[in-house]
Amino acid sequence: MKTNAYAAQTATTPLAPFDLQRRDLGLHDVAIEILYCGVCHSDLHTVRGEWGGTAYPCVPGHEIVGRAISVGAQVQKFQVGDTVGVGCLVDSCRTCVNCEEDLEQFCDNTVFTYNSPDKHTNGITYGGYSERIVVDEAFVLKVPPNLDLAATAPLLCAGITTYSPMHYHNVTTGQKVGVVGLGGLGHMGVKIAKALGAHVVVFTTSSHKVADAIRLGADEVVNSKNADEMQKQLKSFDFILDTVSAQHDINAYLLLLKRDGNLTQVGVPPEPLSLNVGSLVFGRRSLSGSLIGGIKETQEMLDFCGQHHITADIELIPIQKINEAYDRLVKNDVKYRFVIDMASLKAG
Ligand code: NAP
Ligand code: ZN
Ligand code: ZN
Question: Strand 141-142 vs strand 132-136: parallel, antiparallel, or unpaired?
């Protein structure tokens, strides 16, 4: 299936039109017409080679919402016409201990939606900045019928990446939860923590985001550059989610945790962060990481968002504006997720 897409040919060239081939429909596959695709900061890190290991041409995009246009003969969960989602994963080994525990994101042979070896084409996987995608039904999600489709796309990465660690660390009613960085992940983190009943505090470096943070559901907003404001929050948090995409001081946040509190890092700055071990030792605090979520938990998150009417705050863009959107993402100029309207790819 010839498919129009946008790709980067090198780490320093802009994304531009690119033709790719999608595989023929297998027995268990769903062919999806992509309607909307969110723009994650991981797309940018990968396209620009900031983490190393990018194969080019690179077609990013792992926040996909679309419509099933054909289904393989043995597909059971989906029918033509269904509204479906695809997130960061499109396959895994399905037999290892991680897969058996519904944690496919940690499988040694997990296949990410883009920039992973693709056994079907002997090339690499190409993501959602494209007209169509073919995915095994085991990795296709059902989209709640009551949510706006474009604003649902970011749930497939930003939603699950913030939902999963909050669940794992038992965030619940009455706890004090911090969210560091009010970008795509951060603003979803605020909405989800609020829906779980937490008292939510946003830490931002951008003074112009204060009013938005409150509108999004935060109970308090701290300017993280202001030492006095930070001081007032010492030793008071049960859990902090750090979504920052660039170099920053995590020790300042560890000191804000109560005894036994946890800070989970989901942002992946390209450079190492420095750790003052004393901030962990005093207070038996812990520092963890978390990677997206498995397929079962992603479906749970989508259903939770359906029940709580949670979607992302988005700026819908035509694909022709993608390079501008990347530049704005680096400057923290996004409210709060760009989503590509894939109709623009057909038009142009
Ligand atoms: P984003 O929309 O660009 O948001 C990042 C936020 O970090 C910014 O809005 C900004 O918030 C803050 N920030 C940026 N530069 C900063 C700096 N120099 N110092 C302090 N704060 C800064 O990005 P995103 O899409 O949410 O992604 C965030 C990170 O998570 C990326 O590294 C991405 O690769 C990673 N990620 C990880 C996973 C996972 O599974 N672990 C999944 C998806 C994404 P303020 O303006 O409020 O300060
Ligand atoms: Zn992502
Ligand atoms: Zn596995």
Answer: unpaired
- Taking the CA of residue 247 as reference, the ligand 1 atom at the shortest distance is 18
Residue 242, pLDDT > 60, answer: yes
Instruction: Answer yes or no: do 222 and 250 share one domain.
Output: yes
Residues 6+ apart with CB under 8 A from 166: 177, 189, 192, 193, 196, 239, 241
What token pair was written down for 310? 């949670």
Q: Within this chain, do residues 82 and 20 fall inside the same structural domain, yes or no?
A: yes
- Host domain of residue 76: 2-157+313-346
Count Cβ atoms below 10 Å from residue 307 Cβ, excluding itself.
11
Confidence (pTM): 0.98
250-263 residue pLDDT tens: 999 999 999 999 99
- Does 179 contact ligand 1 (Cβ within 6 A)? no
3-state secondary structure of 155: helix
What's the pLDDT score for residue 347? 65
**Helix, strand, coil distribution of the chain in percent, nearest 5:** 30, 30, 45
Is the shortest distance between the CB of 156 and ligand 1 below 6 Å? no
